[in-house]
Amino acid sequence: MKLKKTAELEALLFASGDPLTLERAAGALLCTTGEAADLLEQLQQEYRKENRGIELRKAAGGWQLVTKKETAGLIRRLQEKQEVKLSNAAMETLAIVAFRQPVTKSEMEAIRGVKVDGVLGNLVELGLIAEVGRKEALGRPILYGTTEIFLRTFGLDSLEDLPQLPEEVLDGRGEDPEPLFD
Fold first, then answer.
1. Do residues 63 and 12 make contact, with C-beta atoms less than 8 angstroms apart?
2. pLDDT value at position 177?
3. By the 8 A CB rule, do 56 and 63 touch?
4. pLDDT tens across 84-94, in order?
5. Engineered SS bond to 26: which of 33, 34, 119, 151, CB 3.0-4.6 Å?
């Protein structure tokens, strides 16, 4: 089934993001600029007469799909930052990455003593850590490090602002605690 030209134009406008010039629209639709102008007018009229949340507006030398003014409050609610709380496991893993970076998943697991797959995926999805390379070792495992989002989230200017930890803590060589019972 072939799409109507207005549906094709709508797809172009949606995918473009930036204002779409008449010439680019005509070129993509394989039609004249006059035909493209007629299609834009037809599409604009369809958006005006229907109760829709978007409209077609002329902007910056082209045409663009934009949200209607009436939806501004709704859009603001969507864009409001939602507080994300990290679990203890996520905080522990994030601390390992922050202080030992670049670090592999297996190194994180060795320090924590548990698998970190789920936590690691969440931290990457939140943008707090990212892949920073590959370790020159058997299997070339992925190396992880913190990101700019990590720095902003924790109010750090650079990694040098992290507190200094004793080397034995970083190496996992901390002293064993005294036994509670003899």
1. no
2. 43
3. yes
4. 788 999 999 99
5. 33
Tokens describing residue 109: 């697991």
Contact 102, 133 (CB under 8 A): yes
**Pairwise CA distance, residues 159 & 117, whole Å:** 24
- Look up the pTM and report it: 0.50
Question: How far is the C-alpha of 93 from the C-alpha of 99, rounded, in Å?
Answer: 10
Q: Rounded to whole angstroms, what are the CA distances from 180 to 63, 126, 177?
A: 73, 40, 9
> Which residue in this structure is represented by tokens 């629209």?
25
Mean pLDDT, range 3-29, rounded to an integer: 88
CA distances from 182 to 155, 170, 177 (A): 45, 29, 13
Q: Is the dihedral of CA 43, 48, 53, 54 positive or negative?
A: positive
Amino acid making up residue 52: R
Question: DSSP 3-state helix, strand, coil percentages of the chain (rounded to 5)?
Answer: 50, 15, 35
